[in-house]
């Protein structure tokens, strides 16, 4: 309608970005929490279906529903408001342990290396560009490394982000050895006193043995210059693929020791509940979530605003 106002402020923007997930959950829950609805085991079963439909996953859903069942037996769920508050409490308990913002700073002031990994199409290169924008705005000296030498388009895309954010970039021709590119980039970053090196890598299927071997080689080569590098192995996951993201996370984690996650494209899926599923099953820090195309739509992950954005009508 013409007189409707768009959501304003950070929460309003997050809520707007998560519209598809919120509408799926809120519509389901709104129908369950009618004024005359009885608070009983049947209601909890309906809540379970609603959560699974939002891709919250079996493990996280079981945790939530088991707690609601225990509260029901203790006569703690007197009305729909009590049920909704309990639901929020349970979601918060699942997400709070993985809220660990990334602080790209080393103890000795040397270059902090972020190795960005993931499959093609997940949004690795765009995530690097948005991270560069964020860190430059914070006053950090940033360098980019075009380690995805498998695709010419990836190098060009990263060069565009380098120009946009005013950051130097180390790149070689398509087909060059990725480990060599990143070695040179770290050498240059350290020599020039850069705070952060954001390193792109080739994105192929997580089942591709050659990719995983290449990532292991990159880690070994970086460690020759700095025993602690890379300081962060950041896995970028496409939220729209739902539970398949868990498989990717396990494979990359096993191969290269993932230390943090970025969940992209949450604005394009009705299954944003996958964030809860990933938190419950993996326990890996969720560093950022991607909720749009704009440069500032890469958001530091916060549990409570996220839960409010998917549950608040």
Put the structure in a nutshell.
With 313 residues, this protein is of the alpha/beta class. It is built from 12 helices and 8 strands.
Beta percentage is 5-15%
SS-based structural class?
alpha/beta
Number of domains: 2
CATH superfamily of the largest domain: P-loop containing nucleotide triphosphate hydrolases
Would you identify the CATH architecture of the largest domain?
3-Layer(aba) Sandwich
Q: How is the biggest beta sheet arranged?
A: 8 strands, mixed
Rough shape? elongated
Low-confidence stretches: 1-7
What topology, given as strand order, has the largest sheet?
A: 3-2-4-1-5-6-7-8
Number of helices: 12
Descriptive overview:
50% of the residues lie in helices and 12% in strands. The longest helix has 17 residues, at 209-225. It has 12 helices and 8 strands. Strands 3-2-4-1-5-6-7-8 form an 8-stranded mixed β-sheet, sandwiched between helices. The protein is elongated, with a radius of gyration of 21 Å. It has 2 domains: 12-98, SRP54, nucleotide-binding domain (Four Helix Bundle (Hemerythrin (Met), subunit A), Up-down Bundle), CATH 1.20.120.140; 112-301, P-loop containing nucleotide triphosphate hydrolases (Rossmann fold), CATH 3.40.50.300. Helix 1 packs across helix 12 (303-311). The chain starts with 8 loop residues before the first helix and ends with a helix. It has 313 residues and is of the alpha/beta class.
């Amino acid at each position: 309608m013409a007189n409707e106002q768009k959501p304003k402020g950070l929460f309003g923007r997050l809520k707007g970005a998560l519209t598809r997930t919120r509408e799926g959950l809120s519509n389901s829950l709104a129908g369950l929490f009618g004024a005359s609805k009885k608070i009983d085991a049947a209601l909890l079963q309906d809540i379970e279906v609603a959560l699974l439909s939002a891709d919250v996953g079996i493990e996280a859903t079981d945790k939530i529903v088991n707690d609601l069942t225990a509260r029901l037996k203790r006569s703690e769920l007197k009305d729909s408001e009590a049920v909704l508050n309990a639901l929020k409490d349970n979601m918060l308990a699942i997400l709070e342990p993985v809220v660990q913002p990334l602080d790209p700073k080393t103890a000795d002031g040397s270059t902090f290396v972020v190795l960005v990994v993931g499959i093609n199409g997940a949004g690795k290169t765009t995530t690097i560009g948005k991270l560069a924008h964020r860190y430059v705005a914070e006053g950090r000296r940033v360098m980019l490394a075009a380690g995805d030498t498998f695709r010419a388009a990836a190098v060009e895309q990263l060069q565009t982000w380098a120009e946009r954010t005013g950051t130097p970039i180390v790149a070689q021709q398509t087909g060059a050895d990725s480990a060599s590119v990143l070695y040179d980039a770290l050498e240059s970053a350290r020599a020039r006193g850069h705070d952060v090196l954001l390193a792109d890598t080739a994105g192929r299927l997580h089942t591709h043995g050659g990719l995983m071997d290449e990532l292991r080689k990159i880690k070994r080569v970086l460690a020759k210059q700095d025993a602690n590098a890379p300081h962060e192995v950041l896995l970028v996951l496409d939220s729209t693929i739902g539970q398949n993201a868990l498989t990717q996370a396990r494979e990359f984690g096993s191969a290269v020791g993932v230390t943090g996650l970025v969940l992209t494209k949450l604005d394009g899926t009705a299954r944003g509940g996958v964030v809860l599923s990933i938190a419950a099953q993996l326990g890996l820090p969720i560093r950022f979530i991607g909720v749009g195309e704009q440069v500032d739509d890469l958001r530091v992950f916060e549990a409570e605003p996220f839960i409010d954005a998917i549950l608040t009508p």
